[in-house]
Amino acid sequence: MNIASFGVEEWLNVWENDAIYDIAGSSIASFSLEEIISIDGTTPKEFFDGLLKTKMNYGWIEGSPDFKKEVSKLYKNVPPENILQTNGATGANLLALYSLIEPGDHVISMHPSYQQLYDIPKSFGAEVDFWEIYEENDWLPKLNELKKLIRPNTKLICLNNANNPTGTIFDDDFLKEIVKIASNVGAYILVDEVYKPLDSSIVVSSIVDLYDKGISTNSLSKTYSVPGIRVGWIASNTELADSFRKYRDYTMICAGVFDDYLAVHVLKNKELVYDRNKKIVHTNLEIVKEWVKNEPRVSLVFPKYVSTSFIKLDIPIDVEQFCIDILKEKGVLLVPGNRFDVPGHARLGYCTHTEILKNGLKELSAYLRKFDK
Ligand SMILES: Cc1ncc(COP(=O)(O)O)c(C=O)c1O
Q: Is residue 323 part of a domain?
C-alpha cells in the first residue's frame, strides 16, 4: 500500500529536538504530570494512592465507564456506549477511515489540513478531491465549490474544525450548509475536532450533534494539553460505533490503565483546564497581534482563539530552507508551509509557554532583518 510521507510529522521528527524556541507546535503549553494532577488540589500522593493497587492489566478495552461518561458529556446527544477510546485523535481518524473507505470510493477533503484526512483515504484506494481553503477568504472554503465536487456516490467528507494549520473555524451556520450538501447524497462527514476555540463567545458544535452521519474525533492532546497520554476518542451514532468496534479490535486493544486513569482526571477537571488554557491563548494571541503589527515581513489571518496559526512570510528564499537556517542558527522552530502544500507560509504554534513565544518571535524578527538589506 502506497502512502505519501506525512509532511509535518516528518519535519518535526527530524528537527523538534534541536529547538530552543519551539514555536511550531499546535498544542497549548503541555502540563507537567504534577501540574495536571494537582489542578484541582489533588496531591500526587492522593492521585497515586488510587492507582498503586490497580492491576496493570489491559483494563477497560473501550475506555473505562468513567471515561466514556465524561466524554459523552462533551456532546449533546451521544450516549457513553457510542464513545470508543482510541490512541489519540490520529488513532480515531485512522479507525474511521479504515472502517469506511474502500477502493474506488469518492472522498472530499478540506485542503490544506491535517494530512491524515486526505492521504489515508487515498492510500485505501479512494479518489480524493480537495475542497480548497483560501487565504483571502479568511482561510475558508467556498460552499459552491463543495456543491460542484459532491457526487451521488460521495462516501465521505473530511474536515478539521478548527483547522490545522490555519485555525479556520466553521461556525454552526456553515456546518449546517455542509450537512445539507452531504445529506443530499447520504455522505458521511468526519470532523477532527481536536482544536476547540477557547473563547466563550465562539460556540462551535460537534458534527455528531448536527448530523446523524457525522463522526467526531478528538483527544486530550491539544485543548487539554496532555499529548503525552495517548488518549483520544471517536463519537458517532450506534450503527457506526458498532462498525468501528469491529475494526478497532484489529488495530488496538486499549489505551492503557494509567492513561485512562489520568484521562478521566483531566476530563473531570476540564473547566479548570479550559480556564488555564484560555488565559494562555488570549495572552499569547495579543503578543502575536502586536508582533505582526510591527513585523513588516509577516502577515497573518488571525485565528479566533484556536491554538494554531499560519503566518505568511515575505522572504526571497524557499521557506523550508529558511526554517532550517533559522533553526540551526537561532534555535527557532517553525513548520514550513510547504509541509502543508502552501509555500511562503509557516505554522506558528503560538500557544507554547509565553516566555518561549516572546523570545522566539524576537529571534525570528531579528533574523528577518537580514532580508531588509
Ligand atoms: C488535526 C489534528 N488531528 C490530530 C492530531 C494528533 O492528535 P493526537 O495527538 O491526539 O493523536 C493533530 C496533531 O497535530 C492534529 O493537528
A: yes
CATH code at position 364: 3.90.1150.10
| pLDDT tens figures, 299-328 | 999 999 999 999 999 999 999 999 999 999
Q: Closest Cα to residue 20, out of 317, 343, 334?
A: 334
Q: What percentage of the chain exceeds 90 in pLDDT?
A: 94
In the block, cell 528577518 appears at 368
In whole angstroms, what separates CA 310 from the centre of its chain?
Answer: 14
Residue type, 62: E
CA of 31 to the centre of ligand 1 (A): 17
Of 268, 292, 321, the last residue of a domain is 268
Mutate to test the pocket of ligand 1, among 6, 16, 164 (most ligand atoms within 8 A of CB): 164
| Nearest alpha carbon to residue 135 among 344, 360, 361 | 344
Measure the CA angle with vertex 330, ends 32 and 310; round to 5°.
Answer: 70
Exposed, middle or buried, 21 (CB in 10 Å: 0-12/13-18/19+)?
buried
Place of cell 496559526: 309
Query: Ligand 1: which of 16, 85, 90 to mutate, most ligand atoms within 8 Å of CB?
Result: 90
| pLDDT, averaged across the chain | 96
Give yes or no: residues 59 and 119 share one domain.
yes
Domain residues for 92?
Answer: 54-268
Check whether residue 244 and residue 214 sit in a common domain.
Answer: yes
